[in-house]
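In this supplementary section we document a worked example of the pipeline. Step one takes a protein sequence of length 308 as its only input; no multiple sequence alignment statistics are reported here. Step two produces a three-dimensional model, which step three serialises into structure tokens for compact storage. The input and output of this example are shown verbatim.
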Amino acid sequence: MKTGRDDLPDWLPAWCLEHLGGEPVGVLFQRHQVSMVFGLRLTSGTDVVVKARADDGRAVSCVAAQARLAERGFPCARPLTPVTGVGSLAVHAEEFRPGGEVLPGDSPDVARRYAEVFAYLMAELAGVAVAPPLPNPPWVRWDHTGSGVWPAIGFLDDRDQSVVPAFVVEAAERARGRLLAAGLPCVLGWADFEAQNLRWHGQQVWAVHDWDSLAWQPEAALAGAASGSFASAGPPTLAPIESSEAFLAAYQDIRGRSFTAVEQEIAWAASVWMAAYNARELALHGHAPVCCAALQAQAAERLRRANA
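The serialised model returned by step three reads:
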């Protein structure tokens, strides 16, 4: 643990004092990705996590849903404050929930274990009433209202698009067309179900992190995206087709309802869209996208199953 506060934003010590009753005396960790996340030890000796992200209107619903599930015993950190505004940021604090291990692998057996957690999560969220957390996270924002295949995101759109493989764009276009044509009702669900966001103690899930990633989309689309992304423990990847199939079968069995033929197609289309989005983003940043080769190998079969 670092004891200095020099790297913390100027607003953070005063925010902690006002909302948590103490200032930071140590820094457990810092992460800066989509959100800024600070693990802090306060003057009281309490360890907390403070999260700050651009205020796009989603945070209040996401934190409220997280609080409801934590109250019911779901394995996640309990929010300690409501969402507050700090300039252009939405900020809240939650319990520090350390420990646990990432469950690696992308086999059908591992897929079924992740599907159990996803089904549990979706069942719990079905009982939560919050305003839809819109707009949806960009990596599942196939439902954007723009004219192009991708949602408008300046830091990606300003880059050289020629580095994105043509098959990635084609796969995204076909998947999005199928998703938009379905007209299925939306539910509250999880849109970033990746191994790196879960921690396990043996056979039991210990913590589900990253509650910024709730979404408002058809259940089949959310399950389909999760069936492709569950094995991502670092750079985004795409699970083997047989593992996505095992995930979706286990999910439906646990939820006690079989998807309709249309929902099955939407699940497969959603798995393609998320992989294509990730492949594009990584290519635009000059990284070798792990999911790109898998998408190239699997796109034709996944799109066939999607009827796209």
